[in-house]
Automatic annotation (TrEMBL):
CDD domains: CGS_like (cd00614). Keywords: Pyridoxal phosphate, Transferase. The keyword Transferase applies. PANTHER family: HOMOCYSTEINE/CYSTEINE SYNTHASE, HOMOCYSTEINE_CYSTEINE SYNTHASE. Residues 441-461 are annotated as: Disordered. It holds the Pfam family Cys_Met_Meta_PP. InterPro entries: Cys/Met-Metab_PyrdxlP-dep_enz, OAc-hSer/O-AcSer_sulfhydrylase, PyrdxlP-dep_Trfase, PyrdxlP-dep_Trfase_major, PyrdxlP-dep_Trfase_small. Belongs to the trans-sulfuration enzymes family. This is Bifunctional o-acetylhomoserine/o-acetylserine sulfhydrylase. It comes from Microbacterium marinilacus. SUPFAM superfamilies: PLP-dependent transferases. The keyword Cell membrane does not apply. Signal peptide: none annotated.
Length: 461
C-alpha cells in the first residue's frame, strides 16, 4: 500500500508553472484544454430536490452567475493560489474590489486607518462614499513609523489599509511593520497590491489579511478590460472578536434566532464567505465571465511580462536619472532612491514599472515632453503591455488642492510612466527624441518622413 503523500513530500511548483496550471478546473466534457468561457446567466437544476440543495448549499454546484460561474471560479482559484490565499472573489473593477474588501469588515460607526499614498479613486471612495455610510477614514502621515498608526487607534478602529507600491511617487510601505501594528490592536490589515501583482510580491507572506487588485492592470495585462479581485488570507482570528466584528457572529439565515453563524460554518474563512455572499453577492459587483476569461489569458503570462516590464523600467529610470532636465526619479529600484532598502526587501524580482520623474522646467517642460512622444501612449491606465505616459498634476491628481499636491510631491513638472514590454531600445529612442524636442531641437520622427500618415490603413488601396 502506498502512503498518501504529506504536504512536505509534495514537490513545490514554481510561479510560472502555477500561473498556467493552477486554475484548470476541468471543462464540459469536450476535452478543451482551457477552462471555457461559460456565458450562462443561470445553471440547470435536475429536479426539485436538486434546486433545493443548491440553495441550501449542501450541493455546491453553480446557481446563478452573479454568485458563481465556472469561468470565474477557474480564475479565482489561480489568483488565490498565486497569492497564497484561501479564496478569491472576482468583482467588476478595482474600485469594486476596494469596496467589497472594506465593507465586509466595516460598518456604520467604525473608524479605519489608511496609509497616505493611495490610488485617488480609493481616496475619493473613502472620503466621500464611505463617509456617507458613517464609516470614518483617517490618514496616517508616516506609514513606515508604527507609532503613527498606534497613536491614532481608537476604540472603534476596525482595520488598517495601505497600498503596496503607490504611484506616482513609489513611496513604498513597510508591509510587515504595518501588519504587525494592526495585529497588536487585533484588527486586520488590508492591502491594494495592484502594482506589484503576486509575481513581485505576496503580501500574505508578510502578514496581510486581505489583498485586492485591479485586474484591469497587469493581471489582465493587455489593456482590454476592467476587473478586480479580493483575496483572503484566512488567518485573521475573527472568532476572537465578537465585539469588533459582530456580523460574523450572527446567524447566516437572518431570521433564524439560534442559527449557525458565519464563524460556526466557515471558521477562519468567515470573512471570505461573508464578503463573497453578502457584500459582493448583494451589492452585485460580479465580473462578467467574458472579462474573467481575459484575466485568465493574462495571468498565464504574468511572470514573463513582469520580468520584461521591470527590466525595461529599471533601464529607463537609470537613463532618466542621467538627463540634466530631470530633477528626480521616483523609482525604488535605483540605489539612489530613499525607498531602495524596502525595495530590496520586498521586491527582489524588480520594483514594478509604474513610476514618476520630475522635470525642473515645471508644467511647460512636462507639456513639451508629453506632446513629443511617439511610442508611449498618452493615456490614464497602467500595467498595459504598451508603454503609457500621463501628467498627474493636471489629470488624476487635479482634484487635490495645491497644498495636498505639494505635500505628496506631485509637482508641476511630474510625469508618470507605465513602462510596457516593448524593446527597451525603442522606448529609450522615443524618450531621447522627446527630450531633444524639450531642448528646442527638431529631431525627425522615429517613424521616418511623414510620421503616422505612413500607417494609414487605406494606403495602397
Ligand atoms: C486602477 C487602480 C485601482 C482601481 O481599479 P479599476 O479597475 O480602475 O476600478 C485601484 N488601485 C490601484 C493601485 C489602481 O492602479
Amino acid at each position: 500500500m502506498t502512503e498518501t503523500p504529506t504536504p512536505s513530500d509534495a514537490h513545490e511548483f514554481g510561479f510560472s508553472t502555477e500561473q498556467v496550471h493552477a486554475g484548470y478546473l476541468g471543462e464540459g466534457g469536450y476535452g478543451a484544454r482551457i477552462t471555457p468561457l461559460y456565458l450562462s446567466a443561470g445553471f440547470i437544476f435536475d429536479d426539485f430536490e436538486h434546486a433545493k440543495a443548491r440553495f441550501a448549499g449542501t450541493d455546491l454546484g453553480y446557481v446563478y452567475s452573479r454568485i458563481n460561474n465556472p469561468t470565474n471560479a477557474a480564475v479565482e482559484k489561480v489568483l488565490a493560489d498565486l497569492e497564497h490565499g484561501v479564496g478569491a472573489t472576482l468583482v467588476g473593477s478595482g474600485q469594486a474590489a476596494a469596496t467589497v474588501s472594506l465593507l465586509s469588515v466595516l460598518k456604520a460607526g467604525d473608524h479605519f486607518l489608511s496609509a497616505p499614498s493611495i490610488y485617488e479613486g480609493t481616496r475619493a471612495l473613502f472620503r466621500g462614499n464611505f463617509a456617507r455610510f458613517g464609516i470614518e477614514v483617517e490618514f496616517v502621515e508616516n506609514p513606515n513609523d508604527p507609532d503613527d498608526w498606534h497613536r491614532r487607534v481608537r476604540d472603534n478602529t476596525r482595520l488598517f489599509f495601505g497600498e503596496a507600491i503607490p504611484n506616482p511617487k513609489n513611496d513604498l510601505i513597510d508591509i510587515e511593520a504595518i501588519a504587525t501594528a494592526a495585529h497588536e490592536h487585533d484588527v486586520p490589515f488590508a492591502i491594494d497590491s495592484t502594482v506589484p501583482t503576486p509575481y513581485l510580491l505576496r503580501p500574505i507572506d508578510y502578514g496581510a489579511d486581505i489583498v485586492f487588485h485591479s485586474t484591469s492592470k497587469f493581471l489582465a495585462g493587455h489593456g482590454n478590460s476592467i476587473g478586480g479581485v479580493v483575496i483572503d488570507a484566512g488567518r485573521f482570528d475573527w472568532a476572537a472578536h465578537p465585539d469588533k466584528y459582530p456580523h460574523l457572529h450572527q446567524p447566516i439565515v437572518e431570521d433564524d434566532a439560534d442559527g449557525v453563524t458565519w464563524i460556526d460554518k466557515f471558521g477562519a474563512k468567515a470573512n471570505f464567505a461573508f464578503a463573497r455572499a453578502v457584500v459582493a453577492g448583494r451589492f452585485g459587483t460580479s465580473l462578467s465571465p467574458f472579462n474573467a476569461f481575459l484575466v485568465q489569458q493574462g495571468v498565464e503570462t504574468l511572470s514573463l511580462r513582469l520580468e520584461r516590464h521591470t527590466r525595461n523600467a529599471l533601464a529607463i529610470a537609470t537613463w532618466l536619472e542621467q538627463q540634466p532636465e530631470v530633477a528626480s526619479v521616483d523609482y525604488p529600484g535605483l540605489p539612489s532612491n530613499p525607498f531602495h532598502a524596502l525595495a530590496q526587501k520586498y521586491y527582489p524580482r524588480g520594483a514594478g514599472s509604474v513610476f514618476a520623474f520630475t522635470l525642473s522646467g515645471g508644467e511647460e517642460a512636462a507639456k513639451a515632453l508629453y506632446d513629443a512622444v511617439e511610442v508611449f501612449t498618452r493615456m490614464t491606465h497602467i500595467g498595459d503591455v504598451r508603454s503609457l505616459i500621463l501628467h498627474p498634476p493636471t489629470t488624476t491628481h487635479s482634484k487635490l488642492s495645491q497644498a495636498e499636491r505639494d505635500r505628496a510631491g506631485i509637482h508641476p513638472g511630474l510625469i508618470r510612466l507605465s513602462v510596457g514590454i516593448e524593446d527597451v531600445e525603442d522606448l529609450l529612442a522615443d524618450l531621447d527624441r522627446a527630450f531633444r524636442v524639450l531642448r528646442g531641437e527638431t529631431p525627425p520622427s522615429l517613424r521616418g518622413e511623414g510620421g503616422d500618415a505612413e500607417l494609414t490603413p487605406a494606403d495602397g488601396l
